[in-house]
Amino acid sequence: MDKTISPNKRIVSLDIIRGFALLGILFINIRGYQVISDTTVIPSYSAFDKTIENFISIFIEKKFFSIFSFLFGVGFYIFSSRAESRSDNPRWRFTRRLLSLLLIGIIHLIFFWGSILPIYAIAGFLLLPFYNATHSTICRWLVGISVTYLTALLVNLGVSSKNPILAVTSFVTGDLTLIFIMFLAGFFVAKANWIGRIKDFQNQIRRIQLTTLPLFIGSSIWIWTAAQADSKQLPLIISISTIPTVAFYLSTMFLLLENKTVSTIFMPVSYVGRMALTNYVAQSFIGLAIMSFMNIEYPLPTQVVLIAILIFLSQTLYTVVWFKFFKMGPLEKVWRFMTYGRLKY
């Protein structure tokens, strides 16, 4: 177990990053809050809307749910290691936690077809065999799966749509693979104790940042060019860009949040991250209510931005107020009860 991670101390930088991840996810999910049918009229984009859409493709799409997945992997290690420190069975306790999340996710799926919670719960079981694995074993698996994923994406990019190999490569390049890569990356970083000792690993994190910066810039230009040309390969290009972009985002955020002034400025966002499950589920209901009230069937990119900011600001406000009176969010309390059979452990 990592002795530097206190059983009772929250790591504020993780909560802040988790809060921003929820904002990024919101930009992508908003269109899914309304059911799109064959009769839905999709409005034409203005030049400004097209630009906003391209920016979302470059900076947000797939990136923030990947960051959220990374943090899930971090959370798996912290949760399980703390369970072990209490002489609890970490694998059984985490299994119960995943089953509880699966139930919550299935209920959420009834209201929002795009809920990621059931996939997280199912993919989370793949982490269990790695709990006692060595750092080198986890690293080999992480590199191997990542290389396989990126290679399959490049194959998809280069072969004809009629090529039978796509039946295999398209399976490998699904979001489930990306989610598991991020789960494993987060677990590895937490197990290696980078999370609890960011200052001690600043040089390594800075190298990751500087290495991935040109990859981020290059892939951003690639996405922009493909979007301008209305390329059918745009989704593949976005997927290829995700891992280096997420590595750049995370390294940058971890370094910035070591600055006390920066972390203080973004402290309200940490409350959103502390209540991530409640806020994620609430977003779908708030978003649907706003679009129904405004009679929006298919939001334009500018409307997506405005609605996302409105929802996130409202969530930031009520979570700050909430934590003045309570120690955890309502769904977090339900999840804890389902995990432990009691509210305190």
Summarize the structure in words.
It is a single chain. Helix 1 (12-29) packs parallel to helix 13 (276-293) and helix 2 (47-59) runs antiparallel to helix 9 (202-228). Helix content is 72%, strand content 0%. It has helices spanning 12-29, 47-59, 63-85, 90-111, 117-124, 135-158, 166-172, 175-191, 202-228, 234-256, 260-265, 267-274, 276-293, 301-322, 330-340. The chain has one domain. It is globular, with a radius of gyration of 20 Å. It has 345 residues and is mainly α. The two termini are 19 Å apart. The longest helix is centred in the middle third of the chain and has 27 residues, at 202-228. The model has no long low-confidence stretch (mean pLDDT 93). The chain has 15 helices and no strands.
Give me a quick take on this structure.
The protein has 345 residues and is mainly α. It starts with 11 loop residues before the first helix and ends in a 5-residue tail after the last helix.
Give me some keywords for this one.
mainly alpha
Query: Mean pLDDT, as a whole number?
Result: 93
Largest sheet: none
- Strand count: 0
Main structural class: mainly alpha
Number of helices: 15
Distance between the termini: 19 Å
Order of helices and strands: HHHHHHHHHHHHHHH
Strand content: under 5%
Shape: globular
Number of domains: 1
Radius of gyration: 20 Å
Helix content: over 70%
Low-pLDDT sequence parts: none
